[in-house]
Amino acid sequence: MISMNNQPIFQQQAIPGIIGGLGPLAHIEFERLLLALNSTRGACGDRQHPIWFLINATDLPDRTQSLLGNQPSCVPWLVKYGKILEVAGADFLVITCNTSHGFYNLVQPQLNIPWIHIMQETVRFIKLHYPGLNRVGILATDGTLQAHLYQDSLTAAGLTAIAPALNSELQQDIMNAIYHPIWGIKATGVQILPPPIHILKTAIKWLESQGAELLIAGCTEISVALKLLDKTSLIAIDPLEIMANLTLDLAFGYENIPEISSPLK
C-alpha cells in the first residue's frame, strides 16, 4: 500500500509512469480518462485518484518519420525517459502513442520496469469482449501500419486486420487528418476542425465496405476525433480507454503487473 504521512490513498499498490506529449493531446486525453473512469469506479475526491508520474516528452522525433527512416531513432529518448520514470519510482510504463510501440523491442530490454504494450492489450480486450467477431478495421499512421503493429497482434490472435493500403489516397487523407499543418488534429489540438471529421467518416465507410466489424482507433488523435462522429455500424475500440482502465487495474492491484517480456516477434 502506498501512503503519505502514513495515510492510505485508495489502496494504491503500484505507480504508473506515463510518457506523454506524443502529440499534444495524447496524455491530456489519457489523464482525463484516468480520472473519469476512476470516478465511475467510485472515487470521490483527489485522494482517491492514483498517483502517477508523467513526462511531457515533446522533444522526441516524430514517431512515424522515425520509423520510416526520415528522422533519428526515437529509442534514445524513450529509454532516457523510461529510466527517469523508473528512478522516480514508477512500477510500470505506459506510452500514450500508438506509433511509439514500433520501438518496443529496442526499448524494453533497456528498462527494468515493464512497458505495457497497447496493441497486445487492445487485442486481448477484443478477444475477451467480442469473441464472435473477426474482421477488425484499423485507422492509424503510416508508421503504425508499416510496422504492422496492430496487424501482427491481430493475426497472432486469429483475427483479420483490414486497413487502407500505404500510399493509397485514403491513407494519405488519414495522414493529413492527423498531420496537416493548418487543420490537422495535431495542429489544432482540442479544436477538431471539419476536414479531419469528413476524412474519418469517409475512412469508416470504406472499412464498412470491406466487411469490418470493429474499428481500432490506432492513433491518439483519431481516438479524440472519433468521439465527435455519429455512431456507425462498426464497434469503435479506443486503445487509449483500454489502457486507462488497465492502468487503474494495475495501480490498485486488481491485475498483476506483467513480467518484462521477451522482444515481440
UniProtKB/TrEMBL annotation:
Molecular functions per Gene Ontology: amino-acid racemase activity
InterPro entries listed in its UniProt record: Asp/Glu/hydantoin_racemase, Asp/Glu_race, Asp_race
DNA-binding listed as a keyword: no
Gene3D superfamilies linked to this entry: 3.40.50.1860
Keyword Nucleus: no
Keywords: Isomerase
Protein family (similarity comment): Belongs to the aspartate/glutamate racemases family.
Name this polypeptide is given: Aspartate racemase
Organism: Limnospira maxima CS-328
